[in-house]
Amino acid sequence: MTLLLLSGNVPIVTAAEQGGIFISYRRQETKHLAGRLYDRLADRFGEAQVFIDVDAIGPGVDFAEEIFRSMAACRILLAVIGSDWLTATDERGNRRLDNPDDTVRLEIETALTRGMWVIPILTDGAVMPGRYDLPKGCAGLTRRNALPIRHENFRSDTERLIAAIKLARAESSAAATSGTPDGDSRIDRARAAQLFREAEQTARSLKHPKSTKVRALSAVARALAASDLAGAAPLFTDAEGMARSITRRFIKDYALSEVAQALAATNPEHAERIANSITDGGQQSLALRHVAEALAAANPDDAERIAHRITDEAQRSAALGAAARARAAADPDHAERLGNSMTDEAEKSLLLRHVAEALASTDPDRAERIANSISNEELRAVSLSAVAEAVAIADPDRAQGIARSIYDDSKQVLALSRITMALAATAPDRAVLFAADAERIAGSIKDKTPKAWALAYVAEAIATLDPSRAERLARSISNKWVRALTLTTIAKALAATDPGHVERIAGSVHKLNQPGLYPAITEVLAATDPDRAERLARSTFAFEVPPALSAVAKALVAKS
After folding, report:
1. Of 62, 185, 428, 469, which sits 20 to 30 A from 75 (CA to CA)?
2. Is residue 210 situated within a structural domain?
3. Cα Rg of the chain (Å, integer)
4. What is the structure's pLDDT at 220?
5. What is the pLDDT of residues 524-550, one digit of tens each?
6. What is the number of structural domains in the chain?
7. Backbone phi and psi for residue 265, each to the nearest 5 degrees, phi listed first
8. 300-307 and 281-296 helices cross at what angle (nearest 10)?
9. Residue 29 in 3-state DSSP?
10. pTM reported for the whole predicted model
11. Domain coverage including residue 43
């Protein structure tokens, strides 16, 4: 049942700091025992510390949010389990625990997600349910030691319970002094748990093709995995199973690639196995690239092994680049030798580009030498722009000279824009001059695609210096995808300082209908304005709601 504080409007944080006790029970079978427990515990710990159902939720109030609000004041949950607790059905004959909105299920799932001390209370001859008798979110209940409370031994049994609660409160208090999140953080985590749950349910109920549902569920799993690997595992499993059930081969390969990409960061071995089962070369290459990138930092040899198996040139280059960056950080001599040993000139240029970029901040002289040795003009220019950014604060004249040495106009704009970003915080007046120079060159470019990217570089560089001008430049970009991407970048840069502006930009990104960008805005905005971020997440297209909501949840967990 939904539980409210009986003693009046006691502040949530105060109760949480003292270790509130939340009694979860089914009214139909254990109402009387729950009432007796409340009286006994309230007498021992005080009414302000014990939460129990009082039928006090008003019309129109979200009962799930009310549960989370009440539970935010508690560190201990007592799950009262009677003989019919597991099999209780609703008026339609469906098992209550199978309903994701069942209040008892929500209470237990939330308590387990938040890391509360959960004590099962067995009464009326009940026994602990098995792991596979429960919904996945409640399975952790089976690992908690239970206490029996019998009517005939009520006083002695509750004394044992009181002793267990005192121990739990003492350990919770000790944990709090050593870094356990405060009351606000617990509220954030409870809210995140609800958003993850809602995102999952929304993904599963989408009225879209299976491939879209796989993409949405994989996005939720990836966000959840950042804080709860065990909780994300069944979502990944279900997404993979759904993908493999698709009969059309190309669509099946696309869906499996989505799962592999999402899984790569947390389980690269399984992600590689999924990728190996994909028959379409493009989708397999994309999936293997994500696996290689995930492995690069810890195991560049494996990343390189996978990269060399990728058939698509662009994806192979990106994967090899990740391995090269990792090698350069650990052993720049080896990384440079490896790059120079490549017989294929394109791969050699690519690897040396990544080595130069990795070294730019720590050894700019060496990075500039390596960059100038690259035969591919475009990659040489990109590498030199990284060096220009690295030296800009210490020597802006040198940075400008490096930028001027780049012949390609769009890449010169890239270098000037990176210098602008480097100087924005410490020398904004000079940064504005570099930005003006970059904008002038960008405006003179005739070819549409290079011009679009050049304007994007400038807009990103001045996002914090002159947000309105950055937005005007972004809106002038003819390429729809680049325009949406640039607006997203500006929104992310402004999230901490101007959430209202971010919301307006998000509306424009939404209208451009470019999948994958909207959740990035909601995740960044959630760190400073979670209410606005959640509102935005709910306002996008149905297939974008699950990744957007889970992005907000991920940010709330990180914030807490």
Report:
1. 62
2. no
3. 28
4. 95
5. 898 888 889 999 999 888 999 999 999
6. 1
7. -70, -30
8. 170
9. helix
10. 0.65
11. 4-180
Whether residue 17 is contained in a domain is answered as yes
Complete DSSP assignment for 32-97:
HHHHHHHHHHHHHH-GGGEEE--S-PPTT--HHHHHHHHHTTEEEEEEEE-TTTTT-B-TTS-BGG
The SS3 of residue 24 is strand
In this structure, what are the phi and psi dihedrals at residue 299, rounded to the nearest 5 degrees? -145, 75
Measured between alpha carbons, how far is 183 from 127 in angstroms, rounded to an integer? 34
Please report whether residue 137 resides in a domain: yes
The structure tokens listed for 115 are: 């890391």
Q: Token match 């919301």: residue?
A: 503
Q: Which two tokens stand for residue 542?
A: 């149905």
CATH number for the domain that contains residue 135: 3.40.50.10140
pLDDT at position 402:
97
The residues, any chain, with a CB within 8 Å of residue 216's CB and separated by 6 or more, are: 202, 203, 206, 543, 546, 547
- On whether residue 148 sits in a domain, the answer given is yes
Say if residues 484 and 471 touch (Cβ distance below 8 Å).
no
Are 447 and 402 in contact by the 8 Å Cβ rule? The answer is no
Handedness of CA 535, 536, 541, 547 (dihedral sign): negative
Cβ atoms of 25 and 80 closer than 8 Å = yes
Residue ranges of the chain whose pLDDT lies below 70:
1-19, 53-70, 72-73, 171-187, 560
pLDDT digits 0-9 by tens, 441-482: 999 999 999 999 999 999 999 999 999 999 999 999 999 999
